[in-house]
Specification:
This protein is mostly beta strands. The protein has one domain: Beta Barrel (Thrombin, subunit H), CATH 2.40.10.270. Helices cover 11% and strands 46% of the residues. It has one helix at 5-19; strands at residues 22-30, 45-58, 66-71, 74-86, 98-103, 116-123, 130-137. The longest helix has 15 residues, at 5-19.
Length: 139
């Protein structure tokens, strides 16, 4: 028996894309600008537009969605999620890129609009049906 893996993946990618009812943009932080002599901080760089289109945000399955970490003596909690974008998204996504939810469907959570998330990891698979990005809510 021969398996049409290409056909199965095409069908799977189409079905997963149908679940992506929200819209997002992904930007890459720019190189820090000039040093501000008054603040001692570098001016923020101009971000690069990487992606705009359909996406799906969800809590990861089987993984602790919130993790406690220490920053110096301060204990902070990071909320982790997964963002899926179409498999054929043209530009590679990188860690530290920023995902911003720009619109949700009529069934989506309106509180997500304008929330930003930082990419922490990219899931790779030879038979993936979507690009799956591990993200944490940006502070």
């Amino acid at each position: 028996m021969t398996v049409d893996l290409g056909g199965i993946l095409a069908d799977g990618r189409s079905m997963v894309a149908d679940l992506m009812q929200d819209q997002c943009t992904i930007t890459r932080p720019g190189t820090p600008g000039d040093l501000n002599q008054q603040t001692g901080q570098h001016e923020p760089g101009v971000p690069t537009h990487v992606y705009a289109g359909p996406c799906r945000l969800k809590a990861p399955v089987g993984v602790n969605a919130s993790v406690d970490e220490e920053a110096g003596e301060l204990e902070v909690s990071a909320s982790r999620y997964q963002v899926a974008i179409p498999f054929d998204a043209a530009t590679p996504i990188e860690p530290d890129d920023v995902v911003t939810i720009t619109a949700v469907s009529a069934y989506g959570d309106p509180w997500l609009v304008d929330r930003s998330f930082v990419v922490t990891d990219i899931g790779y698979s030879s038979t993936s049906t979507a690009r799956k990005l591990s993200v944490e809510e940006a502070s």
